[in-house]
Write a structure and sequence with these properties.
Elements (H helix, E strand, L loop, with lengths): L1 H27 L9 H23 L13 H25 L27 H17 L2 H30 L1 H9 L12 H5 L4
Length: 205
């Protein structure tokens, strides 16, 4: 049963992602991944490829990933199911908000806009947050230590490598506008006490 729940969640989120990414490519163009540099691409592959292959193996035949299974109480797997189900409307919200600005890379498009509405009103990187939550949800659903471990590794990579590089590019593109936006929002989760003092004294329109 948990396998089929995981499959349904994956198909739903991937369908949303594919639809909006294709539309963004038509309307706003695309940036080749090689533009990020070979070392950055290698790091993505080193973490992303094993992670997605392990998830694919689980939904195709759970026995293939049985070697990494861990004893999990059923309630924990249902928590994973709940998180996964919540990721579906969250994915739709994020893609509807970012529109043609979504990119396959950390680089900005020529006509890139600074999006500050929808979930971007509270966090700067909701797509990474939702994606990380989705992968962790699948790991809990599968009760699979390999998937959970690589989900955590991917989160560390996003926080320490991907986001800092992306924000360097965004600061170079938008300057003080993005710097002020950083002061108003959290990275992947909302600020625990709302906006910073400086942000409250300079509210966004």
């Amino acid at each position: 049963m948990f396998r089929w729940i995981a499959l349904a969640i994956l198909l739903a989120t991937l369908s949303i992602s594919t639809f909006y990414r294709r539309r963004a490519r038509r309307e706003g163009g695309t940036i080749p991944r090689r533009s990020e540099g070979k070392w950055f691409m290698a790091a993505r592959l080193a973490v992303g490829l094993p992670l997605w292959l392990s998830i694919l193996a689980y939904v195709v035949n759970p026995r293939w990933m049985q070697w990494a299974a861990f004893p999990s109480p059923e309630w924990l797997r249902w928590i994973g199911a709940g998180l996964g189900v919540m990721a579906v409307p969250a994915t739709l919200w994020v893609f509807q908000s970012i529109g043609q600005n979504v990119s396959e890379t950390v680089l900005t498009k020529n006509q890139h806009e600074l999006v500050t509405h929808g979930p971007y009103r509270w966090v700067r990187h909701p797509l990474y947050a939702v994606g990380s939550g989705l992968i962790m949800a699948i790991g809990l659903l599968a009760a699979n230590g390999f998937i959970v471990a690589f989900a955590l590794l991917a989160l560390v990579l996003i926080r320490t490598v991907v986001i800092p590089r992306e924000e360097t590019v965004l600061l170079a593109t938008f300057g003080d506008r993005y710097r002020e936006y950083m002061g108003q929002t959290g990275g992947m989760v909302p600020r625990p006490f709302g906006r910073s003092r400086s942000a409250r004294s300079h509210p966004s329109p």
